[in-house]
Design goal:
CATH superfamily of one domain: Tetracycline Repressor, domain 2
Structural class: mainly alpha
Shape: elongated
Largest sheet: none
CATH topology of one domain: Tetracycline Repressor, domain 2
Strand content: under 5%
Oligomer: single chain
Radius of gyration: 19 Å
C-alpha cells in the first residue's frame, strides 16, 4: 500500500517532475515526450507521475503556469524597483530579455510550445494574463504622462513583438550571441519615437 503523501511531499515531487518535463519539452517538443520517459528521468515507476498529474497535457500546463508566474515576478519586480515612468519601461524591457536568456527552456515552454486546450487550465490562463499585464502597465504610465499616444494594449503588443523577435532570433542562433539586448533597445527607441503624441 502506497504511503500517504503530505502536501509538502506532493509539492516537492510535482516541482521536480515539472523541472524535468520543462527540459525535455524544450529539447524534444511535448509530442516526443512520454510519461514513461518523465518517470525514468526521475527514477520512479511509470505510473508514479499519474499520482500527481492527470496526463502529459496537465504537466505541460503546470510547467507553463510556473514559467509565466516566474516571468511576471521578474517583470513586476523590475517595474517596482525603477523610479520614473521612462525608467520603469526600460527596466521591464531589460528584465524581459534577462529572463529569456537566463531561463531559455522556461521561455520556450511559455511562448513556443503549443497547448491546444489552454482554456481548460484556469491557473495557466490567469498566469498568462498576469504576465501580459506586466507588459502593458508601464505603457499605460507612459501614455498617462503624455510620452506616448495610442491604445496601451496595442502598444504593449508592439513592444512585446519587438522583444520576442530579438530574443527568439538569438536563441535560434540567427543573431550573434549577445546582440539581442542592443537590438531590443534600438527597436524600443524607434517604436517610442514613432508613438509620441503628434509623431
Amino acid at each position: 500500500m502506497p504511503r500517504v503523501l503530505s502536501e509538502s511531499d506532493v509539492a516537492d515531487f510535482r516541482e521536480r517532475l515539472c523541472e524535468v518535463a520543462e527540459k525535455l519539452f524544450a529539447e524534444k517538443g511535448p509530442d516526443a515526450v512520454t510519461m514513461r520517459q518523465l518517470a525514468a528521468e526521475l527514477g520512479v515507476s511509470p505510473m508514479t507521475p499519474y499520482r500527481y498529474f492527470a496526463d502529459k497535457e496537465d504537466i505541460l500546463a503546470a510547467v507553463r503556469t510556473n514559467g509565466f508566474n516566474r516571468f511576471a515576478d521578474a517583470l513586476e519586480g523590475a517595474y517596482a524597483s525603477a523610479r520614473g515612468v521612462r525608467a520603469k519601461g526600460a527596466a521591464v524591457g531589460e528584465a524581459y530579455v534577462t529572463f529569456a536568456f537566463e531561463h531559455p527552456q522556461t521561455y520556450k515552454a511559455m511562448f513556443d510550445l503549443n497547448q491546444p486546450h489552454e482554456e481548460n487550465y484556469p491557473d495557466l490562463v490567469a498566469a498568462a494574463l498576469r504576465a501580459r499585464a506586466t507588459q502593458t502597465s508601464y505603457v499605460k504610465d507612459l501614455i498617462a504622462e503624455g510620452i506616448l499616444a495610442g491604445d496601451p494594449e496595442e502598444i504593449g503588443r508592439m513592444f512585446w513583438a519587438a522583444a520576442h523577435g530579438a530574443v527568439g532570433l538569438e536563441l535560434a542562433g540567427k543573431l550573434p550571441a549577445g546582440t539581442a539586448r542592443g537590438l531590443h533597445r534600438h527597436m524600443n527607441g524607434a517604436l517610442a519615437k514613432g508613438l509620441r503624441p503628434g509623431a
